[in-house]
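Kindly inspect what follows.
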Amino acid sequence: MEFVHLKDLRASCLEPVDVISGYQSSSNCSYYKSTKDVATHFFFDALNKGTYVLEYDLRVTNLGSFNNGISTLQSMYAPEFSSHSENIKIKVVE
């Protein structure tokens, strides 16, 4: 697929460590990463068929129970091609 956007929503108890936007690469793909208040966005020029793992560091800021947001993958020019992950619960204890 070409021109793909991945939006990874974060729980309110998590803050990203690296907030600088820019081009990065991992595994066998390259992407532009942009960090915003609620989510981290990944923009791919081309994404081949396969399994990819994207990781970035987060810092825990609050104790309690939280719902982590979903991750949405969508084609920028053909939005009917999209997918999303499940919501997970996060419990932070001291």
Residues 27 and 52 are 7 Å apart (CA to CA).
